[in-house]
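Holo prediction — 2-oxoglutaric acid.
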Amino acid sequence: MTASPCLTASLLSPVRSSDLSPVRKGCLYVLTRRACARRVFSCYHECRGSNGPLPEVATCDRSMSPNLHPICSQLHRAGYVFLPSHLPGESSEAVARSMGAAVCVGKGGSVHQLKPKPESDAPSTTYSGIYGSNIFPLHTDLAHWRFPPRFLLLRCVAGYDAVATLLIDGAQVIENIDHVVLSRALVRPRRRVEGIFPLLRLYDRQQPDRGLLRWDEVFIRPASRAGEIGVQKFRECLARSSPISVSLAKQGDTLIIDNWRMLHGRSSVPPACSARVIERLYLEKVS
Ligand SMILES: O=C(O)CCC(=O)C(=O)O
Ligand SMILES: [Fe+2]
């Protein structure tokens, strides 16, 4: 198959089928010129209750080449897009479908409802089960997978200004880490997978676009001495970075995150915000 001309300018470059896990095979990272031109989104940023740096403001430049769709171009530039009150009457599934291909992860379809819960009410394999309503530390989702889902979409069903989703650009964090240290940093899932510990790179620069960064202090562990050094260095650089804070406060507020580049976390949830409901979907592509 020949790549569409749009592809070269887009965030999403084709991947070799040998790079894909079986579930990803057949998933094409192709944006057609027509599909790009059809979508005109007015997207901009707004930061509610930010303590750290303000998110960049992305405006929709209508004179922009149709192959630089505003969402793709913002995702490429900043690693995330915030769409305030985006199609509030639509289901999250329909919104995700209009943007790309949603991936089913676990049981029960592609939409996961996230509600603050006490630790005891959630499985210990989830952040809610470990942290409850406390702060979720910065992480990438499903970091223990060989190929974590590329994009994460979070959508507000019931939200509060007082609860923030925090973002850090991992591409900036790794700029401060020696290339050799980073390339030697091997990690592994905390538990065996089919009896073995698969070896994974903390940062795999061979992957399309900017490479694949994974970070999770719970679900992945250093797999060697070089892994320990790389993880320690990453932790130090991360501690010097200031997160961007976005509140998913109004119905339809939508945050799309490049999960191979950005780390995300959550502030604590005060008791007054315990009715917070966020829907989460994973996407393999955004077009
Ligand atoms: O609730 C949030 O704002 C973020 C939750 C989160 O980390 C996740 O869905 O993976
Ligand atoms: Fe997460």
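READOUT: Residues 114, 127, 136, 141, 154, 165, 264, 266, 278, 280 surround 2-oxoglutaric acid (ligand 1) (CB under 6 Å).
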